[in-house]
Design a protein that fits this description.
Number of strands: 0
Oligomer: single chain
Helix content: over 70%
CATH superfamily: MFS general substrate transporter like domains
Order of helices and strands: HHHHHHHHHH
Radius of gyration: 18 Å
Strand content: under 5%
CATH architecture: Up-down Bundle
Number of helices: 10
Largest sheet: none
Number of domains: 1
């Protein structure tokens, strides 16, 4: 089923997305030059924080749901389905908010993830709270990829290819660091440890965007 959906998606992209010739030749020097721009640098740090937090926490959502609210596998599957559906609508909502403010889209989404993670830590034993928080978490995270990609392109519209490479590399570093830190927190404190780190990292990301707003300029 996943392969079929992927094939359909590829066909839709080939038909609907216009051809965009490269505007510049990417180079290592250019990447360092881009990192010297405040809006790019702030964006990279923001992404590192929320991606690390998100993947540290979400990786261990299933053991959390098994041990804290003690859901069965059927209920967990439905909650994760709700997470995915929430992400779909979050992607749409993020696009709408971006038209008004990119910093608002990133800041609100990361703050919402932090709030949901905090709810899971404090009231996660309640079935309704856990199911709702995970669903809203999916909605919030769905808004972030389109928001940060738009942020990078607007920060350096003449170097879209290089900024795209930077954001992909940053995501991968964030995922790797989140996996390491999440594992360490789970070993030390159980699933609640990873969710707590998620709350702290995503809140730090939201706070960083809010305090750096004047320097972003996108």
């Amino acid at each position: 089923m996943a392969a079929a959906v992927g094939a359909v998606t590829l066909i839709v992209q080939m038909v609907s997305i216009p051809r965009l010739p490269p505007q510049s030749a990417p180079s290592l020097k250019l990447l360092f030059d881009l990192l010297g721009r405040p809006s790019i640098r702030i964006g990279i740090i923001t992404v590192l924080l929320f991606v690390s937090g998100h993947f540290a926490g979400f990786t261990y959502v299933r053991p959390f749901l098994e041990k804290v609210p003690e859901f069965g596998i059927e209920a967990i599957s439905l909650i994760l389905l709700a997470y995915g559906i929430g992400g779909f609508f979050g992607n749409i909502a993020g696009g709408l908010i971006i038209e008004r403010s990119i910093t608002a889209a990133v800041g609100l989404a990361t703050l919402l993830i932090a709030a949901m993670a905090f709810l899971l830590v404090t009231f996660g034993s309640l079935d309704v709270v856990s199911a709702t928080a995970v669903t809203i978490w999916g909605f919030a995270f769905g808004a972030l990829p389109v928001a940060v990609q738009t942020w990078m392109v607007r920060a350096a519209p003449e170097h879209a290819e290089s900024t795209g490479g930077l954001i992909v590399a940053t995501f991968q570093v964030g995922i790797a660091s989140g996996a390491v830190l999440g594992g360490l927190f789970v070993d030390a404190f159980g699933p609640l440890g990873a969710i707590t780190y998620c709350a702290a990292a995503t809140f730090a990301s939201a706070l960083y965007v809010a305090t750096s707003r004047r320097s972003i300029g996108v």
